[in-house]
Amino acid sequence: MAQMAQPNFLIFMTDHQRGDTILRDSQVITPNIDRFRQRAMTFTRAYCPAPHCCPSRATFFTGLYPSEHGVWNNVGVSNTLSRGLYDGVRTFSEDLKENGYDLYFSGKWHISQVESPADRGFEILRHNMDQYRTFPNRPEYSEWDFYNRQPIDTEGLPRREGEIIRPGYTHYTQYGIDEDPFGDQEVAEAAADKIRELKGTDKPFLIFTGPLGPHDPYFVPRRFLELYDPDSIRLPDNFDDPMEDKPVLYRRTQSRYDQLTREEHRESVRRFYAFCSYEDYLFGKLLDALEETGQLDSTIVIYCSDHGDYIGAHGLWAKGLPCFQEAYHVCSMIGGPGIQPGVCDALLSLADYAPTILELAGVRADRSFTGRSFVPFLKGTKPDSWRTECYTQTNGNEIYGIQRAVFDGKWKYVFNTFDYDELYDLENDPEELHNLIYGPHPERSPYAEIVREMCRKLWRFAHDTHDNCVNPYIMTALAPFGPGILKDELERF
């Protein structure tokens, strides 16, 4: 079958869905992903740059890292560090629009608080959250109003199943029942209706569908919960990690969940799996619409997520500064005309999607990306060279602290400005249970040479992506080996 010069695109980006939930050996029941797998390339080692929504979504749309696109944290909170993309940063959608594509957006944006998808070329079909409004260039106090509108936990009340009591904070329940969580049904139906409406159109199109699930709290339709036998659910192998050799913030975050019993943790896993099955059901509606209208063979379909969820790993849930693989591992499947189905274990970044989509569309962009097109993998070949490491960039998820990491198939090094650093032997300790350098002086540890080499890679990437986390002041220059180890290397360029 000949490939179209300009194929259609359908993007389905879930929120909080860890990459291993769509793999063939997953416990998660995903019949629509399974049928899509027959025509798609699945990337088993795909990662986001930051452990929360906005920086990672901005990376997906721009092909750049946070230090380059300017979105460091969630843009809608009052104490945000960033409210939108840097001036002059473009999204792949703008390139497609200028090259004949019609663009449609349904669901979650969460890239900018001062721009909407319409500002980047999209016609908006449906929203499922308050996604953008202009803030003044100063802190706001709007979140104080939240406490006047929501029930507040008080001390002395009995805790019910799935609840985490937080005196003085708004009420939180980890899981429950909701027949249309976050309005995702309407988001998917709006996209499916547009697919049917576009039958026979002469212009290529791209439809972005952004449900909010399987984001916590895990409230799911009952029929999807009933797919899972509670007795079959197991906790992660690293669930009982005491994290005594890891940053104190990690242990403090873990303690937030210690009110939950072991059975409630298992039930949380069950609800998360059910939520993934629900999102799979919605994804199936879009595949059905493409198939019913005869557009499936002319459309490149992408199933991906913005970041992962710990799902009980290390006793944690959701996402945040603990720099474990579970929060960074994302879903990544792509199939359609000219794409060879299969499984690929190459290291992939969300930054790779923008240049890949543009190449598949036959659109040349007159700018550089930090990501690389992975089209050769989709064609069944290998690029001349491909990355051997992945990098992370975060300044914190509303609880701020600079954290950077670099990992490959063997080692993972985490630079924490708020606590001691981390080094894991991923080959022998894939669950990241044993921090090999816990303490104030990793440069004096038996692993000093490994730490030095990982620092060199980290600083090289920081230099190349204009990441200015390199202040030499004595109170901020806390890495065991500073950027100056690159001096001789940089002088050669």
Key descriptive features of the protein:
about 500 residues, alpha/beta, four-stranded antiparallel β-sheet, about 15% strand, globular
Structure, described:
The chain is of the alpha/beta class and 493 residues long. It is 27% helix and 17% strand. The chain is built from 14 helices and 14 strands. The strands form 3 sheets. An 8-stranded mixed beta sheet has the order 4-3-6-1-8-9-2-10, sandwiched between helices. A 4-stranded antiparallel beta sheet has the order 11-12-13-14, with helices on one face. Strands 5-7 form a two-stranded parallel sheet. Helix 1 (31-37) packs across helix 9 and helix 6 (184-197) runs parallel beside helix 9. It starts with 7 loop residues before the first strand and ends with a helix. The mean pLDDT is 94.
Distance between the termini: 47 Å
Helix content: 25-40%
**Main structural class:** alpha/beta
For the largest sheet, list the strands in their spatial order: 4-3-6-1-8-9-2-10
Q: What amount of the residues lies in strands?
A: 15-25%
Write the layout of secondary structure elements.
Elements: E1 8-14, H1 31-37, E2 40-47, H2 53-62, H3 66-69, H4 92-98, E3 102-107, E4 123-127, H5 142-149, E5 175-177, H6 184-197, E6 205-210, E7 218-220, H7 222-225, H8 248-255, H9 262-292, E8 299-305, H10 325-328, E9 332-335, E10 342-349, H11 353-361, H12 375-378, E11 390-396, E12 400-407, E13 411-416, E14 422-425, H13 448-464, H14 487-491
Parallel strand pairs: 1-6, 1-8, 2-10, 3-4, 3-6, 5-7
Antiparallel strand pairs: 2-9, 8-9, 11-12, 12-13, 13-14
Helix pairs in contact: 1-9, 6-9
